[in-house]
Amino acid sequence: MKAAWRRYEGPTWLVAASIYGGWIALAAAHGRLPFALALSLAIYLTAWHSSLQHETIHALRNVPRRVKTLLAIPPLGVWFPYEWYRREHLRHHATSELAAPADPESFYHDPERWARMPAPVRAVFLANQTFAGRLIVGPAVQIVRTYAAAWHRIRAGDRAVRRIWSAHLARVAVLAGVLQLCGIDPVWYLAFVAYPAASLGLVRSFAEHRFAASNAERTAVVESRSLLSLLFLNNNLHAVHHAFPALPWYEIPRRYRSDPRACGLATGLAPLRGYRSIVQLWLLRPIDVPVAEAREAVRARVR
Hints:
Elements: H1 2-7, H2 10-29, H3 35-58, H4 65-72, H5 82-94, H6 111-116, H7 119-127, H8 131-136, H9 138-155, H10 159-181, H11 186-205, H12 227-231, H13 238-243, H14 252-258, H15 274-282, H16 295-302
């Protein structure tokens, strides 16, 4: 039993049981709980589910891919299909330049495109570079650009993308039906659970990649022992994840403590001391100008 627990990454299955069991119990009993508690738990569980999806992409190495897909595919977060996220996230890991326009998970832009943007659009992207802005407009920016990219591929005749999004819409319809059976308005869930859960997920990614001259210095570590670390399944130690992407989430802290040099942390990029320090540094101040090149010229232009 102990060998099977390690071989099939038992802690991850325990997380999955906690997420789905907790979400179902909460949906059924939400009316008997204080509103603030029920809402907070719903947001946390929904954001935690996105971390589980991330884990199924990289880990659970001895579990068939079809089983991993079934484990991750329920659309609790609503906005994005799991299969689309999987494809784009693997492209993120395969890119030779993180925190660059070619990185599908980057908010950076080419200088020429940035210069052509209308001032209000640039203002939104700059606001998105502050911590407060990332929470408020970050999910909307992510949703708009993802849907635009998907629509472009569908119009170009990409049948695989059409299948992914059609199947996702069908699953979201099932989720909406379940919510209604439990007395929850699906539109209310979308606005007050799914959107805040997406914001909470962006807390993790806010500082994890930044443009630098060396690609090795573009991935950060945020040291945290709070509930956020559990929520992100230790992916806040992001440089470790990029150095060892198949490492299960519960082994990441030990690897970080035992050999930081092997984790790519000998680059001079100082670890960030918790999310409180990130809030203090960048609550209303941009963490960076969202352009991957010509930094000083762009900074002068946006002042």
